[in-house]
Description:
single chain, about 550 residues, alpha/beta, D-Maltodextrin-Binding Protein, domain 2, 3 domains, 4-stranded mixed beta sheet, about 35% helix, disordered N terminus
Amino acid sequence: MKKKLLCLLLCIATIFSVGMLGGCAEEEEVDTNSNVNTSRSAVTISMWIISEEKVSEATEAAVEEAFNEITESKYTTHVDLVFCTEEEYKAKVDAQLDKSQNRPAGTPIKPVTKGESYVKDDEGMWVLDYPKVGEYQMDIVLITGEDMLKEYVADGQLLSLNDALTTTYKVIGTYIYNDILENSKIDGEWFAVPNNQMIGEFTYLMVNKSMADKYYYTDYFDGSAANTTFGMKAPVAELIKLVAENEDTSVIAPMYGMADFPLVRYWNTESGVESVLSTVYPTASIPYGKDFVPTITTLFGEDSYKSFMELMFYCKENDYFMTTQDTFAVGVMDGDYTLYQQYSDDYYMIPLAYPRLEDTDVFSSMFAVTKYTASEQRAMEIIKELTCRSELRNVLQYGVLDKHYTLNEDGALKRLNNDYMMNIAYTGNVMMAYPEEGMPLDLWEAAKQQNLQSLLSGVYGTTSQFSTVDKDAWQKMSEISESYFKRLYACETVSEFQTYLAVASAEISSSPYYKTLTTTFLTSGDFDTASLAGVLAKWHQETFSGN
């Protein structure tokens, strides 16, 4: 490893003003910490991270060398990367934390060193001799969930980062979308730095501009108050019918394809999976807060769902869906902001649902500093680099240039092998990573725009509230939901769908599991916390009663 004495000559820091853009400022070109100087001592810290597959010793050594060429030169800090697979990570972190916490009395965390020392490298050059990580030392850890964070905070294992994030490392906040950063606190205090990411996805109603103009429907879709109602007599349905009756449908399809109802938050035991237990949003942009009281009902009993799906089955019954055509008159698509960029020249892109920030988005990937660190300052400098700059962040994500990847002329990354594979969400600010081949080159710019338009989930903050819910009833309803949706999508006509929906809705409403999970109050008048509905109602009252 090249650790030349000249690497101790650090760049003089200058102040760099960073603009706020949805939590994604332009990359920081110079260091912002005035405490970085040329007289710093050599420090070694550890960083615990998750790899998709087990990392070989040779790969680990190569990645560490590339990583430390940056950190030693800039911060006089050597980082020992500790790679674990997802399956083993939590247990190994727990074991090290337990070992550190229960070390023999009086045992120091940081290895005792006697000033600076130097050794000769393979080329005979004198280089700094960095200390090894102490047996009880643990510096940066990756946090992968709210429960994990709260567990370590409750056990006193993590340092508070409030001072760091509001003073010396305040710049970090300009690289993280504000709603992600602000909602990552535990009882009003930061104990980890969330990794910035793209939030959720849109659902767009897409209306072909030329068809809307031809059939005099432009006024319904070209303005800010675009018509997003669905049903057999809604403007969107009328336009579909006109195109089907008057256009060559081998060239332009009346409808893109079967779409899912957009205004719903499913309550399945598996996140994001369809469930007949649902919370329905009345509009695409309904805000989080006291004015939206989330209730849990059977989706099949909701009029807005019925109207939307009747149109879907009408198109299915009449073979209106796109097959070999290149264009379509109307479509409903889920996707990120690049979908808007791709289609907006030819289609009116009307949001039916905006990206919504959930608890899991905030807490799924964070960097924390344990109280067993050799240096909070050095740990925070590394976290800052992974948040605010691309060079170190891309080494951790992709490995070594020309060994694990190359860069195309357009700046896209091409992998040379699968020797080093990391989850992009676990290695820092995703918007500082190289786009890979097949990804839009402007994906992260689109992500900034997407985050700026995102909303808090109407039930943000409830994930940790459901420990008292009847788990058996919830699991049964999740299993039942799968069978109900399977039978629903097997319908071929509007009439079949309507008949099935009425029967299914009645069956679900009479299910004892459904009743268990949708009862809000006990006979005593207290909230029924064995019920999803009861927990939600209790949470909403406690969260917004003072507002």
